[in-house]
Design goal:
The chain has a domain at 1-268: Glucose Permease (Domain IIA) (Distorted Sandwich), CATH 2.70.70. It contains five helices and 39 strands. It is mainly β.
Length: 646
Amino acid sequence: MPTTTRTTVIARSRARALVLSAGLVAGLVALPCVVGRRVEASTSVPAAAVVCPGPTYTVLSGDYWIRIATKNGVTLAAVLAANHAVATTVIHPGQIVCLPASAVTTTAAVPTTVNAPGPVVILPGGVLPIKQFPVQGLCWFSDSWGAPRSGGRRHEGVDLITKMGQKIYAVDDGVLTKRYIDAPGSLSGNGWRLTRADGTYFFYAHLSAFADGLMVGSPVVAGQIIGLVGMTGAAGTPHLHFEVHPGGGAPINPTPTVTAVNGCKITAIPAQPAAVAPVPTTTVAPATTIPATTIPATTTTTVASLPPLAPTANSRWTFIAPQTVLDTNGAPMTAGAVRTVAITGARGSLAGVPAVLVRLVARSSMMSGHLKLYACGAAVPEASALNYVPDRVNATVLPVPTGPAGVCVAASSSVDVRIEVLAYASSTGVGLQPMDSNRALDTRLATPLAAGAPITLPTTRLGVPASATAVTVSVTLLTPTAPGSISVGPCGGTPWTLAYGSAPSQMIGGVVRVNGAGLCLSSTTTVHVVVDVTGVWVGAQPLVALPAMRLFDSRLSEAISSTDRRVPLTLPAGTTRAQLSIVVIGSPSSGAVYAWNCNRPRPVASVASSIGPPTSVTVTMDVTGGAICLASSRNVQVVIDVFAVG
């Protein structure tokens, strides 16, 4: 049977060209899904009288042109051309529209073995009864029905966040009536449509793989494995996007339906039909139990290949003038693309260095996504280096090992990428010392940072010695009056300048140079600014860059709340400090996250804050004792990745 690709096209206006949105969402993060509903604006332009030479389609309630195109595996442009229509031409239920000759209609794909439709039962509270939760635990989900998506669309599914490769189940007995294949321009990536006897269908998206032996027309039973969790299409982290279409019509909020059979804590795989060859499985270890006198159980990732701490040779950091090694600048990386970045200076001065400290910036994205950064030739890490969101500043600074060919960067969706080298690992230079999060600036206590009015934070206010070379710092931008740019850097020196959007909460996390005069900030528009310092680059304490590794993901257990929570970290023996990436997946209102060594009191200053989409921030942490503590002002999900230890 033929396969089709689910794509979407955003109608920018009647006069503008159609733009294909492309892209690949735990991690992270994020978070994570853009498959959604778009209600077209009405117009007085009637559909021209058309005699269909090929396949036809009967318009259902809730249909619009792009939905008809994706249902039938063709482009919007092809459907419009077949009907001599434009994207805003009105259609109505019962109307017959023409399909291109290449279309494979849903009706044609459903085999005759499907029973005659019966009545669709929806229980109080919007629950459509199903027999099986759609994904193997451990997992996490929340009600994101109707959340805004790019192009004026709305989210019409539920995102079940879990690890890559977890099993995906048929939620009821039925027939697989459509398969979606990941390709450039696909939002759903790999996916299935499962139709049951009453005409109701369930849409699954972002699969990493399909179960062996299944094809369009295959009958399945509830609990049967039909694929594996992935992040194909427009996904920023591994998850399953799941939709419910009663009677084959418009979708309903699926959250009450999956809540009624919530299996997020169930890791056991249901018994499979005898004729079905089992899909290779990966056992998910149960959560590590913390003594009853402390806090709830957590789950950590055990990494057996963690190297021991290296000696001090090549584990200090020599800072240099920022050196641009990649800038796509209008020729963005595409979804799934990997770029090799040579780490050599103008005269080969950086050739052969074991690791570099890089400034990573994502710009001009049309959808949320993430970047991964790793030594070329090494395995692609599970951990992402930066999660990015449209209309926000998206930047970080982190250490990364180098390979013989340099550093590789991978993008999950179309995005411009800029990489600059700030320092390299050497036998001389400076080390890194963690410090309790110190709030050096909070303009909300007085007046916002005015446009064009710089502010100086002396080293005493930063809480660092005058000899410091750099600081690990989080800069939070709140309620900007308009999009603008922020400059952060050593007073009198060359600052780091970044454009920011109009979103009410945005964050920059990374390493910034300072000098004896301190740190200076300025903005082109008025904005509130919060500055928190978590580390100082000074002295000789070594820091060894590691391949990025995931240490903790609260989505596999429970959200971080206002209650202090101890999080064990699997790190090399002897580790006392670490350079971590903390990703916050926020609530609808702002949530501030606190992170500290459990041997000391909770600090006043937070390390990160987020509203809704994932926010990445790089922090320096004291990890003496092999654990840190987390708390948040709102219930949020937190992911922790490690990039360097000392």
